[in-house]
Amino acid sequence: xxxxIEQFVLQVTNEALMLVMLASAPTVIGSLVVGLAVALFSAxxxxxxxxxxxxxxVIAVFLLLAITGAWVGGFLLQFAxxxxxxxxxxxx
Length: 92
Hints:
The chain has 92 residues and is mainly α. The protein is 89% helix and 0% strand.
């Protein structure tokens, strides 16, 4: 009995960690690329404006969330299905 529960908890934990990395990857990578581009532009033109680095990153993150939202939502739905359907057999 306890072996099945431990195995299920390990599986859910592993899936949750992979889901966090997969769900955050597009926005983190996009923000990194935009931040690097803005930093290069700022260093080239010697413009030292605080909003110059903040606003493009926020816009990029919102756009990436809008583009990849359904894809990430599908993964979240699969994870929720795994949690709810996998837990019920362990109660018997």
